[in-house]
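> forwarded from #structure-qc
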């Protein structure tokens, strides 16, 4: 049986990524990815273009999304995979998220003006969702920060001038929307929340109780020790395991094969839940 390579977490210009959907898919195919999910933040606007590009290139496409969620005052991300983008409740939820993001964007624009940093209204005019990344890029373009990372650190994180507390939907709601649209819910990049072991366990328990299906065990930037820890965490909570690069930028992209490590053998892959996937490919 041919080995399949997966990247189940990627972004395009419709959220805070740099590539148009068709180019993302073309790069995925060129990199040897067989199964690609598009998971833009809080929007599925790119999935039609990506799906048709994937059809033309003969790779398998999974329509997805990465939902912003507030859990105990903390922002966490839940990836939904295998979604029906026409599902009415999911569409409504995404429309609400789009509006929340515009509202937060307006508040950030006002905060920037109040801090004497200038008029950033233009960031609200993009077709895709409004993200802190777009504010960061504006700050860099205006010369207020040398790069995106420092724009975040100086202006866009808790306790800095343009930080606006976001109130996202809760965990059970996000998981319900995903499941209601026929998808499975994956807790994204669990290490990035910087939680203690006990608190991360609490989050994973809440996610599991809400009906979550999988943990993202392999993602860019993790070492073997961290991957092993996440694999154990998934097993302890009887969750499946996912693989995703969380690709945003044109370069470097390190999907499987080669760039992202494989799932440890004792993980149950999330794609085992999709019996149809492998068949379309070989
Ligand atoms: P938002 O969902 O609008 O709050 O924006 C969060 C996005 O900003 C994340 O998905 C990352 O892509 C990006 N991000 C978060 N923190 C940083 C940082 N320190 N430097 C660069 N990008 C960041
Ligand atoms: Mn992002
Ligand atoms: Mn994320
Ligand atoms: Mn992401």
């Amino acid at each position: 049986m041919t080995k399949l390579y997966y990247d189940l977490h990627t972004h395009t210009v419709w959220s805070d990524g740099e590539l148009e959907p068709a180019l993302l898919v073309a790069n995925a195919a060129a990199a040897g990815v067989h199964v690609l999910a598009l998971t833009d933040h809080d929007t599925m606007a790119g999935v039609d273009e990506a799906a048709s590009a994937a059809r033309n290139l003969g790779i398998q496409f999974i329509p997805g999304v990465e939902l912003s969620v507030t859990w105990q005052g903390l922002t966490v991300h839940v990836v939904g995979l295998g979604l029906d983008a026409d599902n009415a409740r999911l569409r409504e939820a995404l429309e609400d998220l789009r509006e929340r993001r515009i509202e937060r964007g307006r508040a950030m624009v006002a905060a920037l003006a109040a801090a004497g940093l200038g008029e950033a209204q233009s960031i609200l005019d993009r077709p895709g969702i409004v993200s802190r990344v777009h504010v960061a890029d504006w700050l860099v373009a205006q010369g207020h920060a040398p790069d995106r990372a420092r724009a975040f650190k100086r202006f866009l994180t808790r306790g800095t001038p343009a930080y606006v507390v976001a109130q996202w939907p809760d965990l059970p709601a996000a998981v319900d929307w995903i499941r209601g649209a026929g998808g499975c819910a994956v807790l994204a990049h669990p290490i990035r929340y910087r939680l203690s072991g006990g608190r991360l366990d609490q989050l994973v328990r809440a996610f599991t109780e809400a009906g979550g299906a999988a943990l993202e065990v392999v993602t860019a930037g993790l070492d073997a020790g961290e991957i092993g820890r996440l694999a154990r965490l998934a097993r302890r909570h009887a969750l499946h395991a996912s693989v995703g690069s969380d690709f945003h930028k044109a370069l470097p992209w390190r999907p499987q094969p080669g760039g992202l490590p494989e799932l440890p053998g004792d993980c149950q892959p999330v794609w085992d839940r999709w019996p149809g996937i492998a068949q379309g490919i070989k």
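QC bot note: The two ends are 8 Å apart (CA to CA). DSSP finds eight helices and seven strands in the chain.
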